[in-house]
């Protein structure tokens, strides 16, 4: 439904995919526009994720707005990194939320959820480079997912491709809005990390959001 945020529908789609970890964008916590609910907490509960971390991008409408990490596994060292923009006074604040995910076998990786600038390419480029820099600071394998607001063969995706492996090439479309489609949501991991892509798919669900769920299965080598 347009202009209706249906937490149950979104949670059902997330639950159906049975992902170990998930990156969610455009999450409201106690905003008036979303009925003063904690979407982060509700999505975690309804989708069956015992662990979650909300990364606030900004205060908004009496509450907070940002990105979310959901996890079946314990999270530690959670952090919200403010991303740069070309004009500090213009444009929506953007963040990368990160958390260390520890799997039952003891292996760990750093997971990031992000939503890059939509309208200002210079800002989007700065944000891509900052994510590359943050990834370079950890010894753990680094995986990031989210809405990069950039299509394949763009300068921004070229920056990611220099330093990361995308789980798809010639990626299927991930959003539909006013007749527009394209691949702008990605899952990436740092080059050289001992990870292998077993699967990449876009789930054809247009009911819960104007972006479709992007799924990747990664294996530790």
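^ Assign residues to that structure.
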């Amino acid at each position: 439904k347009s202009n209706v945020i249906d937490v149950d529908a979104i949670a059902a789609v997330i639950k159906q995919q049975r992902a170990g970890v998930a990156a969610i964008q455009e999450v409201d916590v106690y905003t008036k526009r979303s009925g003063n609910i904690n979407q982060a907490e509700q999505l975690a509960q309804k989708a069956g994720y015992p662990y979650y971390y909300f990364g606030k991008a900004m205060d908004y409408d009496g509450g907070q707005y940002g990105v979310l990490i959901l996890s079946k596994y314990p999270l530690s060292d959670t952090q919200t990194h403010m991303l740069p923009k070309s004009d500090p006074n213009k444009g929506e604040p953007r963040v990368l939320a990160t958390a260390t995910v520890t799997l039952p076998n003891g292996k760990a990786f750093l997971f990031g959820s992000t939503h890059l600038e939509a309208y200002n390419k210079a800002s989007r480029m700065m944000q891509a480079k900052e994510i590359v820099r943050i990834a370079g600071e950890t010894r753990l394998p680094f995986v990031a997912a989210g809405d990069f607001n950039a299509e394949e063969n763009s300068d921004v995706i070229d920056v990611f491709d220099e330093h990361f492996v995308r789980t798809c090439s010639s990626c299927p479309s991930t959003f539909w809005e006013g007749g527009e489609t394209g691949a702008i949501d990605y899952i990436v991991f740092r080059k050289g990390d001992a990870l292998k892509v077993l699967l990449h798919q876009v789930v054809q669900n247009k009911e819960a959001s104007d972006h479709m769920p992007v799924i990747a299965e990664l294996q530790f080598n």
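The mean pLDDT is 95.
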